[in-house]
Amino acid sequence: MQLFITALDFVGTFVFALSGAVAAARRGLDLFGVLTLGIVAATTGGILRDVLIGAIPPASLMDWRYFGISLVAGLLTFFWVGVIDRVRRPVQLFDAAGLAVFAVSGAQKALAFGLEPPMAALLGMLTGIVGGMARDIMLNEIPTVLRAELYAVAALAGAGVVVIGELLRWPSTSTTVAGIVVCLALRLGSIYRGWHLPTVATSRSTQTHRDPK
Question: Which of 27, 86, 101, 146 has the most CB atoms less than 10 A away?
Answer without folding.
Answer: 101
